UniProtKB/TrEMBL annotation:
Transmembrane segments: none annotated. SUPFAM superfamilies: Inosine monophosphate dehydrogenase (IMPDH). Gene3D superfamilies: Aldolase class I (3.20.20.70). InterPro entries: Aldolase_TIM, NMO. It comes from the Bacteria. Keywords: Dioxygenase, Flavoprotein, FMN, Oxidoreductase. It holds the Pfam family NMO. The keyword Transmembrane helix does not apply. It comes from Sulfurovum sp. enrichment culture clone C5. This is 2-nitropropane dioxygenase NPD. Its EC number is 1.13.12.16. GO terms for molecular function: dioxygenase activity; nitronate monooxygenase activity. The keyword Oxidoreductase applies.
Length: 364
């Protein structure tokens, strides 16, 4: 079977499956390029580009080979190279970049992405009220904010209309089963009224009030039946992250993929994060070392996210998120932080992106 194409601004996504942007280094050129090539929307994560190709694009390194400050952790040169290589895979098909609102240098990284040829910018990790400001010189770039409630979408649309005279080209509504950072506090993630199937319909109704903005459902979407369910609730597309880790093209290390393959349902938990909201990942040696007081020493080198207050929140939760995600990308099983959606335990094979897209569309 086939699903109706998804229009995001001027861009047509023939198969309305968006691959979630996964940093650090999980969705870069190989994965995003392959997904776009197969008719979905490949999404490059802009987080931690300074460690791309063994830190060759980070001009200043310190303390255990860490990029120094946001200018190096979010490397413009590396991002340009990643997008260029993805383009060699997918040609002129739509390609997106995910830029977290909570990062330091948000506007600069969005501009870097647009200059490098991104068609679509996706932003979550905070309500991106100023998102249009960063793309004011790139009128053809579509904007897709991520929200967790209809109220958040209303606030965002009001502000964008008043301040920038534009609307989102699509909106992603993300439930609390997603991998990585959540849009709800810890206890809120567990409430029935905050699950994706509950928050999606009100967001769809709110989106209609602002000109039928397409709504993309995310957070726990795993297979063909899940996709059909989201469409029945009013979604025009879906975003899937963790399942794409189980592909040959995924940019993650083999060790990272094996952590997800080996994870049992009870291993995937909500973890404390320096960002201020919980993050879902696999409980591995890092969490045990934090509990035992033997975790790596915290020194804010990369200055990656504003809510961490230059390492203060990292000290409070027991780890630096930039360092530990970089370790996971490097395949360091003793110190790495391995994000996964709640359904990650279902991953049991590594297949090609082409095969996965076929399974998602056809349910085979």
């Amino acid at each position: 079977m086939s699903f109706a194409p998804l229009k995001i601004g001027k861009h047509i996504i023939n198969t309305p499956i968006i691959q979630g942007g996964m940093g650090v280094g999980i969705s870069w050129d190989r994965l995003a390029g392959a997904v776009s090539k197969e008719g979905g929307l490949g999404v490059i994560s802009s987080v931690g580009t300074g460690i791309y190709e063994n830190r060759k694009y980070a001009h200043k390194l310190a303390g255990d080979n860490r990029p120094v400050d946001a200018i190096n952790f979010y490397s413009k040169e590396a991002l340009h190279e990643i997008i260029s290589r993805a383009r060699k895979i997918c040609g002129d098909k739509p390609l997106a970049v995910n830029v977290l609102y909570a990062i330091n240098d948000y506007n600069r990284v969005v501009i870097d992405s647009c200059e490098a040829g991104a068609d679509i910018i996706i932003t979550g990790a905070g309500l991106p009220l100023t998102m249009p400001e960063a793309v004011k010189n790139f009128p053809n770039v579509a904007l897709v904010p991520i929200v967790s409630t209809a109220k958040a979408l209303k606030i965002l649309c009001r502000r964008w209309e008043k301040t920038h005279g534009r609307m989102p080209d699509a909106v992603i509504v993300e439930g609390p089963l997603s991998g990585g950072h959540q849009g709800f506090k810890y206890d809120e993630c567990l409430l029935p009224e905050n699950q994706l199937e509950a928050i999606l319909p009100p967001v769809v109704e709110e989106a209609k009030e602002w000109g039928n903005i397409p709504v993309i459902a995310a957070g726990g979407v795993w297979d063909h039946d899940d996709i059909k369910k989201m469409f029945s609730l009013g979604a025009s597309g879906v975003q899937i992250g963790t399942r794409f880790i189980g592909t040959h093209e995924c940019d993650a290390s083999d060790n990272f993929k094996q952590v997800i393959l080996d994870a049992k349902e009870e291993d995937i938990q909500l973890l404390k994060s320096p960002v201020g909201y919980p993050a879902r990942g696999v409980k591995t040696n890092l969490q045990y070392s934090i509990e035992q007081g033997t975790a790596p020493k915290i020194a804010c080198i990369s200055n990656c996210v504003a809510p961490c207050h230059r390492g203060e929140e990292a000290k409070a939760v027991g780890y630096c998120i930039a360092d530990r995600l970089s370790d996971a990308y490097d395949g360091d099983l003793s110190r790495g932080l391995f994000f996964s959606g709640a359904n990650g335990y279902k991953l049991n094979e590594i297949i090609s992106v082409k095969e996965l897209m076929h399974k998602l569309v056809n349910g085979e």
